[in-house]
Amino acid sequence: MGDLPTPEFSDTPVTVAPPLAEAKVAIVTTAGLRPAGEIELWQPTDASFTVLPADARDLQLSHFSPNFDRSGFAADINVVYPVDRLQAMADAGEIGSVADRNLSFMGAQFDATFTTILLDTGPAAAQVLLDQGVDVVLLTPI
Question: Fewest CB within 10 angstroms: 14, 32, 42, 48, which?
């Protein structure tokens, strides 16, 4: 990883999030989740993302690798998609709200997909979050 080129930015925009008790929080997971019934697995170099409604609980882990450990997900979806935990925090007033739409990528990516994520799907995913007024993202890297 140390040899991968990294972009250099002339300036770094600064955004101050509201206090968590007022913030809208979204989940971005790299668990490769898809709505149940979508049989298609993510394929190597697929840098796309899936939009997951916050009320979706019938999800399947669609990671392309048969060696990927699915046991935590099988025991509790909140291991990879902690929407129930966030909702409990919202109900307790610890966060403002949970985003209506959250995102899932397939995390096992190869070098060839970094440019696509940086220039295409990353900004598109960020726009989904911006359009619904998300203040904070909880990243669950799997």
Answer: 14
**Residue 84 to residue 99: CA distance in whole angstroms:** 12
- Around Cβ 100, how many Cβ atoms within 10 Å? 14
User: Residue 102 forms beta bridges with which residues?
Assistant: 52
Q: What is the pTM of this model?
A: 0.85
- Residue with tokens 């392309």, as numbered in its chain: 64
Rounded distance, CA 61 to CA 14, Å? Answer: 35
Exposure string for 103-136, b = 16+ CB within 10 A, e = fewer: bbbbebbeeebeeebeeebeeebeebbeeeebbe
Nearest to 29 by CA among 66, 67, 56: 56
Task: Identify whether the C-beta of residue 138 lies closer than 8 Å to the C-beta of residue 84.
Answer: no
CA distance 48 to 113: 10
